[in-house]
Amino acid sequence: MFRGIRDTQGKKSDLPITSSNFKPKAQSVPRRQILKYACYIIGAFLFIYLLSSKGNISIKYSDEENFTYRFKNIDYEKLKKYDDGVEQFLVDKDGVKLQGSTERVIQKDIDELYHSTVDYYDLSDAEGSSNGAIDGDYILLLIPLRNAEPVLPLMFKHIMNLTYPHSLIDIAFLVSDCSKDDRTLESLFDLSVALQNGNLSDLLKAQESIKGDLSGTSDLHLGYMDPDYIEKVDKAFNPPFHKDYNEPFNSVQIFKKDFGQIIGQGFTDRHDVKVQGIRRKLMGKARNWLTSNALKPYHSWVYWRDADIELMPGSIIQDLMKFNYDVIVPNVWRPLPEFLGNEQAYDLNSWIESDQGLELARNLQEDDVIVEGYAEYPTWRVHLGYIRNPNGDPNEIVDMDGVGGVSILAKAKVFRRGVHFPAFTFQNHAETEAFGKMAKTMGFRVGGLPHYTVWHIYEPSEDDLQEIARKERKKRRQNEGKEDLSEQTKKKLQQKE
Hints:
Elements: H1 31-53, E1 60-61, H2 64-70, H3 76-80, E2 88-92, E3 95-99, H4 103-115, H5 132-135, E4 138-145, H6 152-160, E5 169-175, H7 184-197, H8 200-211, H9 219-222, H10 227-235, E6 251-256, H11 267-271, H12 276-294, E7 299-305, E8 309-311, H13 316-321, E9 327-335, E10 343-345, E11 351-352, H14 355-362, E12 382-383, E13 398-399, E14 407-411, H15 412-416, H16 431-441, E15 446-456, H17 462-496
Parallel strand pairs: 1-2, 4-5, 4-7, 5-6, 9-15
Antiparallel strand pairs: 2-3, 7-14, 8-15, 9-10, 9-14, 11-12, 13-15
Helix pairs in contact: 6-7
């Protein structure tokens, strides 16, 4: 049997009733009555609370855990010192919101505490000026090192000799892919600590008294070079030094990370055409890694330099900076024994693009790397090294395309805007040459100084070593002959007596 129900219009519904126990819904308590009772209860609790507080109003915090997370260094007790009104703080994902009559005073304190724990940087202040030493521009000095223990003393001498204010220079070293028995890292620790303690010059002097001259080119090889060059090396670090010579630097960081570089450090190993593409891409990885980890928002300039420079003016940063180029390099040469011509352009990676170079690139595979200065890649470009005049104006500057990595000064904004040292083939180049190409492509000015020269240490090739060994044997035989002649003379004199 089915029982019907009536709808709101009083009509009988055809919906079935499945249970004979169906009962109408009980009448609910009116909402107004509930609100009335709630107001009575809240009012009673508020009255009791005001009586018990005796006039002392405390600050209430909502979501205190979130408050502590977002503002760890806020002094709660300092905020609670105000008792001239109710001060309630609402904390949500957007920060702290204050309600009450003293909002302006409390907000000021919160701002002061917040600003004491947060650093703000206006990157327009770090654009880099041509007068950075006066304008207070911070420099980031980046030096990659691999099996570099023998040249570290020379490198640190040049670092101390920098006349740019040491307090405005941060130094970052990257030690990578060294041999198992190499002590570059350990020596770097010792010398860096002495540098920052201001007693490195005394330490180096003590080491020289035990080990002899710590210059880059050995005494044996110097003996075959132009006497004028030998004199320059001898006088390079003679006192008096500039007033900040022993002053510590703003900071020194040392990074240790390997990148899988297995190519040897010998002159022939590093300069063989077959390994250049691989080697330079790995160097690009290392340079990019060091830049990313060491560059700070307050740096205006980045100065890349190699450890094995033998002669370099202490004013080199100011000398390069004054041109206000985005990227700028000096000319880099190296000394040679007199039997090889006394000197030679060292860094051929600084060049001006040519039509032949562009045509060569068009005919190569996308991943092929042009290695400048090798017969296998005839680009016929103008090299910075080959337009040098020893008596030329050191302030003459020319626009460049590729740059070498021995000594590069660049504005920090160049790196911030995405220019880097490609660890891949970019326009058929890699690392520093591709860095110059990329900077030019992105609209930055890249320049070089053909008549401003820094000198790399002399690294003899296998052929050089053989020739020097032959000359040394000849000298020895001549000296032995002189000794024999001297002994014969002594005997004759004795016979006469």
